[in-house]
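=== Structural record ===
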Amino acid sequence: MRHGKKVNHLGRTKSHRDALLANLTISLIKAKRIETTLAKAKALRMYIEPLITKSKTDNTHSRRTVFSYLQDKESIKTLFGEIAEKVAERNGGYTRIIKLGQRQGDNAVVALIELVDFNENLLSSAIEEGDTKAKRSRRGKSKKTEETTNVVAATVTEVPSAEVVEEVVEETPSAEIVEEVTETPAEETEDNKEEEVK
């Protein structure tokens, strides 16, 4: 039974496990996505997310705390600069795990772990979906959908009936009259005006 077993030991001692997770974290910070086994990816998510949360407050104490875990100056510079800037608005859930199937050699389940805010393809598609799709609340229809239904209802009531449309079509000049007007030069129209005045 695994009652109260919160930590996956990954078949390693504490020092070996800490070194492994620190190295995976450094690789993930530098490359923004890495491929590893599913068990390691889940353990890495529990290891890196508190460090990313710590990087949101950029002061000496938090830098020293994160450095005690990672021991790598370049990755800490990237974490507190580029990554902290992008995740400033996000309240947790900084990583995404995508299962890739089994590895051919030992049949281990392989997964891709990546930083959510650095996947440009998914971000652009999410923005496009957000523009086209109206958000729904749990209490009922969203305000956008109510406004669109009101606008549609108003336009439906303003559409003229078939009889009014037929009258308008009969009153409009035919194409022959329009052609005659366009063919008359400006001088003839001025002469006509002078004759009418006399």
Summary: Residues 14-31 form the longest helix (18 residues).
